[in-house]
Each structure stands twice: as structure tokens, then as C-alpha cells.
Amino acid sequence: MTALSCRSAGRPRGSEPLKEDSATLVLVKQMDSPPLFCDNTEYAAGLVRRVLGGFIGDTVGVLAPTDFAVSLSTSGVTVAPGRAAIPAAATETGVYLVEASSATMLTLDPADATRDRVDRLVAYAVPPATAADAGKWFFEIRKGEPSATPQPPEVPNAYVVWDFAVPAASKGVNPSGFDRRLTGGQQYISGPVISGATKPAAARVGQLWTDTVAGQVWVSTGAVWQRVTDPTLPRGVVAEVKRTTEDRFEGWTLLERITVPLDASRRYRVSWSTNHYASNPGPPNGNGAIRIAPGNSISTDSPLIRQSGILKNSTTAQAYELSGTFTVTASGTYTLAATATANGAPDITLPGNEGRVFLLEDIGAA
Hints:
Layout: H1 45-55, E1 61-62, E2 70-73, E3 76-79, E4 82-87, E5 95-100, E6 104-107, E7 117-126, E8 136-142, E9 159-166, E10 176-179, E11 187-188, E12 194-196, E13 208-211, E14 216-220, E15 225-228, E16 236-243, E17 247-249, E18 253-262, E19 266-278, E20 286-294, E21 304-310, E22 318-326, E23 332-341, E24 348-350, E25 356-365
Parallel strand pairs: 1-11, 12-13
Antiparallel strand pairs: 1-4, 2-3, 3-6, 4-5, 7-8, 7-9, 9-10, 13-14, 14-15, 16-25, 17-24, 18-23, 19-22, 19-24, 19-25, 20-21, 20-23
């Protein structure tokens, strides 16, 4: 692999930076830590740990759901390979990034004769003790105290991987295990939180992306991005139908229609707006109604959401608006429709030249 060279932007190679002078404006100042991963540059491990740990908010956890997964066979423990961020030692800050490239085999201590106990599998790091030493990290099963009410041992500055209930030998029962990788504030670290004006390709499961234009937050399923919303807040427009055709009627007539999936945990508002006129003023006056039915079909006899009268008038641009809120008792597909009747002659006309709008909105949790 070819290493990348690190150069200063905006200054020709080989030229010197401007000198600092207490009598002049300081334009260039060398920082007290070097750039990471620059050729021919030495830097402290603590600097790398702090910078890389900052990308994950110094969070302790595994980097993939299968990392450090454990299988148990009688007293034999197998820890799957993987990567993780584990706590730094008490004398350090941040997290250590570690990798196990192959499976690790460990063994539980024999059971106590008469009392149960809980053992705990942990991962921990040991910093170098001397300048000639190197840092190390370990998997270790810490043995709990046998007791009538056993508790796992305390393990400060360690990543808790698994707990094992070890029954007393007198019970003749094999140990059992409990996954602790995502407990006690430990996390599955899906990757950095990212933001931008254009949605990226779907990333790691659980990764978050903020749309800086719309101010929306999205979460990745690994295959697609899904918008994250507060379930108590309105979700806005669900569906909308706009028509510019003319309708003329005397009896009940089906007009605008919407077929959509509805959720029993949500509350909805449906509204219908149009202009209307009659060849002569009433009576009889007409009626408008918004109806709903489960499935993909609906009729002028379907249940009402809201109904109100239409006053017959020969003016060609009389406004008519109707709206109502509702919930459904079961989630599923529903059809909503705007319907109207003139209740006989004179008929009513809904002109299309000013437009007609049938709108369905999610207005929050039910």
C-alpha cells in the first residue's frame, strides 16, 4: 500500500511558514500536536485514541451485532472474533479500539459444591508499565462469589461481554449464559452520525443521517433510510387528490376518492374544498359528506365522517369546505370519498376551473 504524504495547503512545497513576530500580526502558528497518519511523523498513542474515540463519542460497545458473540457448551466458552471500543484504563481517558481476529476459547471454573455463583466475561486493556513495554488487552472470565443470592463481580474499566449463571454442583445443572454486550450503557456502535444536503447510500444498521435542508433525521436499516419521527407529533399530508373536471348532479354522487393504509395508533384529518353553483337558488338545498370504508371500494351509503349542507345559489364561485377528524379501530387499507347530493332539482354543479382538493393529513398520535 502506498502511504499518503501530508502537505500544507496554500503554500508551495519547500517554502517556509511566516515567522512569528510580536510586533506584527500572527498569520501562521504551528500547533502542539502533529497531524495523524502523516508520513515520517511520530505521535502519541493517546492522541490517536482521543481523536478516533471522538468519532464515536467515546462510546463503549461492539462495532457489529456479531462481534464478541458467545456460545457456551457445558463449561466451555467460545467468544466470536470482532471489534469493539472498550474502556480505557483508570489512568487514561477515552476508549481503546480492539480487534480479535479469531475465536477465543475460555473455560468456566468448576461449580461450588453447594452454592450458586455468577461469573462475568469481560474485555479490558492494560497500558504499558514501562517505556519498553507494549499495551495489551484481554478476555477474562471473572469468577463471582458463591452465595445464596449470587451477584456478578464488579469490573471497573472493563467491557462486560457475557454473564454466566453457574449452579451449585449438587444441583447437577449445567451453566447458562446471558448476553450483556448492550447493557449498562454499552452500545452497538453503528457508525458516525452524519449530515448533509443529499441522502447517502444506505449505511450500517442504526446509523443516523440529518437532512440539513429539511431538518429531518433518518435512520438506516442497512438497506434503506427511514425517517425518524416523534410518534406524538403530526406527520403531515398522507394523500391528496386535486381535480379540474366538472361534475353536475341531483342525487348522491361519488366524487374525489383516496385509498390508503391507515394506522389505528394515529389520528387523521380529512378535508374537501370546492366551488359550486346551482342553475337556480334552492330549495331544496344540497348536502356534502365525507365517507370512509375498509378496503379498496366505497359507496354513497358508507359510514360518515362529516356531513353538512350545501346552500344552492346561482353565483358561479360559491366556496364550499368540509372537514373532520377521525381514527380507525384497526390498522389496514381504507378508502375515503367526498360525496354530494342536490336532493333533487335544481342540480348542483362543481366547476373544475378553480380546482377541487381532497386532502388527508396525519395530525398525531391517537
